[in-house]
User: Which sequence fits this backbone?
């Protein structure tokens, strides 16, 4: 019964909105923008190969709509985020590197750090309260947000799904305070209590929002046999319909909770992966990946049926590497191979993401960009897509627009540095998971470990899997990158841990 209702709603929205689309386009030449943002999806969690060859993992997953998007747009093989979610999301919203905004780990409760304890290091007092629209919230970063600027320039701004920008009991926990006209299911938490409507998406019976993990705002679906990913797609399409009624271009932050834990089967696809012989946890995960891809396909179908396709940009991105240290089947730390490790790691498996961009009339279909870029680049890039060139922000912007890469009119400067700063302790353990700062320049990558001062050096063009540490062979390169990294961290006011025994700050990478 629910499935028939959903199909009816989709058909109704597609055809009712199509009558308004021509009028909307005539009133504005600004493009609509959809940021299709996936949680914990790795570089290899797709049938789209982001490497020079198709791998066993690419053959495992079924993402035909990602394949279609890649065929119609540009594939980025070296797109980077932070290794955990909140730092990435704040960088996207502000254009700031995580070292500068200091939301360096995941957020949840006001003034409470989610850092795990360490026997040697005392973690710093980072911005545990996340991103805020005002400067009066302690332990937080105040910034002018991306949707705020888009809204100021005529966009109808929609958030759908995971928010995870501000801690509970702060203004930043509500997307409506951060520049969105519509908030669908977004709040402080970074994971759902459940993906199942039958389980009320983690809310207790009779409650619309059970803290901290219950997904808010979807009580009309409680008790139904429907998946959260499907619900968010329906609600996103309904919100686009609102934008059309308002005769405004829209920005949709389609921010799925999938494929974050809890790993719960999407029953529409689960059995086929069991029949393929996947280990049970992996069958659950693969079904969630395909459910996410189906959402992408439904949005693309809606755009086409509504005469919106030619004037809508779709950007596909993930917030960090695929979870590989816990909860999964198979061998740990291998779920992003040939990349090393996964979520929470400074290695490529934790930070390199699947990225696709379709921009009709501007991006060559089926094109590939092998140039590196990082999540804070989305802030100026999306603003440039929207034609917003003059902007006032309270924060300093670190990101560089990737539009020249999209239009194949430029390359990433060889001297540009990319920095990942994690002066924290995430829960699980594994390769590259720890209290680190990392820098990449060109093909060289240096990882600095705060606990013991160790430095690792890799050459990514020859060693994508970071298997051969070249630090002993290239001390001059270690020194050069250590200097660049230390200077940058001091410049932006980055945090660093203390040694518990002496209560002294750990040296910066160029001081050891």
Assistant:
């Amino acid at each position: 019964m629910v499935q028939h209702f959903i199909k009816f709603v989709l058909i109704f929205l597609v055809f009712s909105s199509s009558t308004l689309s021509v009028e909307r386009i005539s009133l504005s030449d600004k493009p609509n923008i959809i940021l299709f943002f996936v949680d914990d999806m790795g570089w290899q969690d797709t049938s789209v190969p982001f490497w020079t060859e198709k791998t066993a993992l690419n053959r495992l997953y079924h993402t035909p709509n990602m394949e279609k998007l890649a065929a119609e747009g540009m594939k980025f093989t070296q797109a980077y985020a932070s290794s955990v979610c909140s730092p990435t999301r704040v960088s996207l919203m502000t254009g700031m590197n995580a070292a500068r905004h200091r939301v360096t780990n995941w957020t949840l409760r006001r003034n409470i750090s989610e850092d795990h304890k360490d026997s040697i290091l005392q973690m710093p007092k980072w911005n545990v309260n996340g991103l805020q629209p005002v400067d009066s919230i302690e332990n937080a970063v105040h910034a002018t947000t991306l949707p705020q600027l888009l809204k100021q320039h005529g966009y109808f701004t929609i958030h759908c799904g995971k928010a995870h920008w501000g801690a509970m009991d702060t203004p930043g926990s509500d997307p409506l305070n951060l520049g969105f006209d519509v908030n669908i299911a977004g709040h402080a938490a970074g994971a759902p209590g459940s993906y199942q409507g039958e389980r009320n998406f983690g809310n207790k019976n009779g409650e619309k929002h059970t803290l901290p993990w219950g997904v808010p705002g979807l009580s009309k679906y409680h008790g139904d046999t429907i998946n959260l990913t499907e619900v968010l797609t329906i609600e996103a399409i309904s919100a686009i319909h609102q934008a059309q009624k308002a005769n405004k271009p829209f920005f949709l932050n389609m921010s799925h909770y999938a494929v974050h834990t809890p790993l719960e089967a999407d029953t529409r696809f689960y059995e086929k992966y069991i029949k393929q012989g996947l280990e049970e946890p992996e069958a659950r995960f693969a079904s969630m990946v395909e459910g996410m891809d189906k959402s992408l396909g439904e949005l693309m179908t809606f755009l086409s049926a509504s005469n919106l396709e030619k004037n809508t940009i779709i950007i596909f991105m993930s917030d960090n590497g695929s979870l590989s240290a816990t909860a999964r089947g198979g061998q740990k730390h291998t779920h992003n191979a040939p990349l090393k490790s996964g979520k929470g790691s400074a290695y490529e498996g934790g930070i390199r993401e699947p990225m696709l961009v379709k921009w009709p009339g501007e991006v060559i279909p089926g094109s590939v960009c092998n140039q590196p870029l990082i999540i804070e680049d989305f802030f100026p890039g999306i603003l440039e897509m929207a034609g917003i060139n003059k902007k006032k922000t309270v924060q300093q912007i670190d990101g560089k627009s990737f539009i020249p890469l999209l239009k194949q009119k430029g390359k990433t400067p060889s001297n540009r540095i990319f920095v990942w700063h994690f002066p924290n302790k995430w829960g699980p353990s594994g390769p590259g998971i720890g209290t680190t700062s990392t820098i990449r320049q060109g093909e060289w990558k240096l990882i600095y470990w705060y606990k013991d001062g160790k430095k690792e050096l890799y050459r990514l063009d020859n060693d994508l899997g970071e298997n051969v540490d070249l630090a002993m062979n290239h001390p001059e390169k270690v020194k050069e990158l250590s200097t660049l990294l230390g200077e940058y961290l001091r410049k932006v006011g980055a945090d660093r841990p203390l040694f518990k025994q002496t209560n002294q700050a750990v040296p910066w990478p160029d001081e050891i």
